[in-house]
Structures are given as C-alpha cells and as structure tokens.
From TrEMBL:
EC code(s) of this entry: 1.5.1.3
CDD domains: DHFR
Pathway noted in the entry: Cofactor biosynthesis; tetrahydrofolate biosynthesis; 5,6,7,8-tetrahydrofolate from 7,8-dihydrofolate: step 1/1
Described purpose of this protein according to its UniProt entry: Key enzyme in folate metabolism. Catalyzes an essential reaction for de novo glycine and purine synthesis, and for DNA precursor synthesis.
Family statement: Belongs to the dihydrofolate reductase family.
Protein known as: Dihydrofolate reductase
Keywords associated with the record: NADP, One-carbon metabolism, Oxidoreductase
UniProt keyword annotation of Secreted present: no
Organism: Nesterenkonia flava
Molecular function as annotated in GO: dihydrofolate reductase activity
Keyword Cytoplasm among record annotations: no
Reaction equation(s) it catalyzes: (6S)-5,6,7,8-tetrahydrofolate + NADP(+) = 7,8-dihydrofolate + NADPH + H(+)
Length: 185
C-alpha cells in the first residue's frame, strides 16, 4: 500500500483559502508542492479542482482524482482529464491503482477533504508549509493533535526562509504516530 500524505500551506491561524484561492503568493511553495507530488496520484475535492487555472489542470505528471458527490459532474470532470470518486475512501482506492512507481499518494485539499482525512485517520504524513502572514480566510486546515502527530522534519530547522515575494515560510513534515480516535479498527 502506498503511503497516504496530505500537503497544504497554512497561516498561523490555519487559513488555507479565501474566495476559492490561496490568499498569498509564495512561488517557492508552489515549486515545493510540484517536487513533492510529482509522479504520484493527487486527490482533491471538486472545489480545489475548480480553483486550479484551467491551463494547469489536470496537474501534469500526476493522476488527478477529484472527489464529488454530484454525479452530473462526472462527465465534465472526465472530459477535463480527471478521474472521479464519490467518496474519499473510493478516491484512495482509485489512486492506489494508479501509483505506478510512486511510493505515495497525496491528498491536496481542500479544507473539507483534509478534515475528513484527519478525522478518519486516512493519512500518515502531513507536509505543511507555514506561511508567516496574518490574513483572513474562509477555509481552514485541520488541527493536528500533538498527541497523534509529531513534527519529524523542518526546513529550515530553525526560523524562516524568505520568499522572493517577501513572505516568510517554512516547510514542516508531520507523521501520525498513533491511530486517530475515530479511525476504523
Ligand atoms: N493552502 C492550501 O494548501 C490549499 C490547498 C487546497 C485548496 N486550498 C483552498 O481550499 C479552498 C477549497 O476547499 P473547500 O474545503 O472549500 O473545498 P474542497 O474540499 O476542495 O471541495 C469540496 C467538495 O468536494 C466534494 N467532497 C468533499 N467531501 C466529499 C466526500 N466525502 N465525498 C464526496 N465528495 C466530497 C464535494 O463536491 P460536490 O459539491 O461536487 O459534491 C464538496 O463540495 C480553496 O480556497 C482553495 O484555494 C488551499
């Protein structure tokens, strides 16, 4: 079974989105996202798919799996180059059939999907970019319970990098050390 990871960027207030987009510009984080997910299947909610500029979707070099409950969206999503699933569990199964040589599949948002993955204990890794900005948002990352999730690496180890845009950021990786309370036995 491939490792299931989640990848997101958040502010200290855990904001990940506003009005269907990320309310910051940190190109180094987009490059990091590309490096981490390249070659692996990516799973996203329908709204995150729609937040991607049309010219960038499906994300190249990755099988794109989109989760929707709306069967009327299956055909347009397929025409747009995505595989679709009607639940997160089905999306993980489908992604698992398309890993090729990749050791991981990546859940790439948005808020609804991350929350479900954390609540159900479906992921083992969280790659979290900390964005040092105080901004309002309407979509939030889930809280990673420190009893369950441990910081295993950070770049830089101390402090921040500064983006070419001037915003400070830092890449953190967390690993889930014990089952989530609501995970199936
Ligand atoms: N900062 C970051 O790293 C990051 C990463 C990704 C996204 N974002 C931001 O997050 C925002 C989008 O997140 P969001 O929470 O609003 O939406 P989302 O999670 O991307 O998509 C929600 C949609 O996914 C489908 N869905 C969710 N759970 C499902 C389930 N269990 N089974 C079947 N379908 C399911 C539903 O689609 P239907 O309505 O079609 O049924 C639902 O409306 C945007 O602002 C985006 O920019 C930020």
């Amino acid at each position: 079974m491939p490792t299931v990871g989640m990848i997101w960027a958040q502010t200290p207030g855990r904001v990940i989105g506003r009005d269907g987009a990320m309310p910051w510009h940190v190109p180094e984080d987009l490059a990091y996202f590309k490096t981490v997910t390249q070659g692996a299947p990516v799973i996203m909610g329908r709204k995150t798919w729609e937040s991607l500029p049309e010219r960038f979707r499906p994300l190249p070099g990755r099988v794109n799996v989109v989760v929707t409950r709306d069967t009327s969206k299956t055909l347009p999503l397929a025409e747009g180059g995505a595989l679709t699933a009607s639940s997160l569990e089905d999306a993980l199964s489908l992604a698992g059939e398309h890993t090729y040589d990749s050791p991981a599949v990546w859940i790439m948002g948005g808020g609804a999907i991350y929350s479900e993955a954390v609540e159900k204990g479906l992921a083992e890794i969280a790659a979290v970019t900390q964005i040092d900005l105080d901004v309002d948002g309407d979509t939030f990352a889930p809280q990673l319970d420190p009893q369950e999730w441990t910081l295993v690496s950070a770049m830089p180890e101390q402090g921040w990098e500064t983006s070419q845009s001037g915003t400070r950021y830092r890449f953190e990786t967390y690993r889930r050390m014990r089952p989530a309370p609501h995970a199936p036995a």
